[in-house]
Structures are given as structure tokens and as C-alpha cells.
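Just wondering, does anyone understand what follows?

——
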Amino acid sequence: MAKESVCAYYGRTELGGSMRVGLFATCLGDTLFPDAVKATAVLLVRLGHDVVFPPEQTCCGQMHVNTGYQREPVPLVRGFAEQFGDPSIDAVVMPSGSCAGSVRHQHEIVAERYGDAALRAGVATVKAKTYELSEFLVDVLGATDVGAWFPHRVTYHPTCHSLRMLRVGDRPLTLLRAVDGIDLVELPQADACCGFGGTFAVKNADTSSAMLQDKMHNVLSTGADVCTAGDSSCLMHIGGGLSRIRAGTHTLHLAQILASTRTSPCLLPEPEAAR
């Protein structure tokens, strides 16, 4: 999509007093979970803000740093700072606690160790205006009820980076509790890792699988129709496990629930027996 505002694309043209928000899609959002990115845009536009999508954005470099390659993501960090450092962009928002954590913490480490003065300045500028979605809604916009409607039983998994690095706390739960029609149920041992951890799941497959089994057991114990979270990566891991056992419980990004309304609902897939 072109760099210019996507507001007209999503049906809003009069913004009056809105913020100009740069939307970062993330790698998983771009390649596997575009609906979470679209839902983020729809939600922000519905709340009256001007959403722009810098078309040359790429990976934030998190996977490189997490795997021990801190010099290699310098071009990615520089590109991110250039794309989102535009002074006309008031805030940078992404549907991912792990990517927001990378921009706010890891980019500074990379710039200090392997960058130049220009990169360090650019990283500092973007860091100061970068937010995970629930942070932006609650802390910046002061919004807790975003006008969502989602008549399903839902449980929430707090992802590790959002919980421990960003410390988003109960912001996502505050937003979910205000959703019309929702039956929000507490997830047992909610703060336990799901076992994904990026390359951790590949390098430590047995441990990752055992952690996933525990997480799925707790999700299924709630009787929820949907397990939601703020990171598509964790939902990919949990959802993959649930689909392999045909549990019937779906995974859905927080943004998709918050973007759902009575007039434009987010529909769950039909049960296999009904197809």
C-alpha cells in the first residue's frame, strides 16, 4: 500500500484532530497474519486517527539479536529509523509486543555497539514514539472501550516480551473487559511461556513442545472459543498445537477482537462438522 494515508481505504476521510500513526506490520504480520495488521489499521482509523504505512519497512531485526547476531541487523535498524523517523509521524504502533520490545530496547544496543552517531540519534527518536497496540490505546489515547463487539468466550495469554520487557500489565485485559458481548475467562498459569521463543522452538524442540502442552492444557481448561494474545508468533505456536489435536479452540490476535463490531464482525471459522 502506498505511503499516503490508508484512511480513505478503510472508509474514513474526515479526521479532525487525529494523530498521524505509522503502522509497522512485522514479519509475521506481513507474511502469515495480515488480518491482524489490517485489524490494527481498521481500529485506529475507526478511533479517528490517520494511519500511514511506510512501504519500504522490513524486519525490525529482533530474530537476529535474539539468536546472537547483533552486528548483522544494523541495516534493518537503520532502515526502521529512516522509515519511521519521519517528523510527521506522531507515533509508531505495531500489533506485537516482541517487535515493540525490540525497537525500544534492542535497537539501542545495536546502535550503541555497531552504529554511528546518526543511527544512535535516529533510534532514540523512534524509540520515544513506539508503542505496542494496547499501550498506545490505553496510555496515549486514553481509550479503554473502543466500541468492539465479540460475543464469544475468550481467554487471554500474556506474551513474554509484552509481559516482561514492555510490562504492559493488564492493559490488554482492560480493553477486553470493555468489549460488548464477550465472556472473558481467566487463563490458569497465564504468565507461563507458551514455549515458542522464535529459534528456541527449533533449537530446543522437546522443551518447547512440553511447554506448549502445558499451555494448551490450560487454554482448553477454560472452555474458551478463542485464545487471544498481542503477538502473532505465540498465537501461531499455540494455534498450531490446538489445530493438530482438532481442539476446536481458535487463536485470534487482540487487534482482531478490538476491531470487531456489530456491523463488521470478526467471524470465527465454522466447526468442521458444520462444513
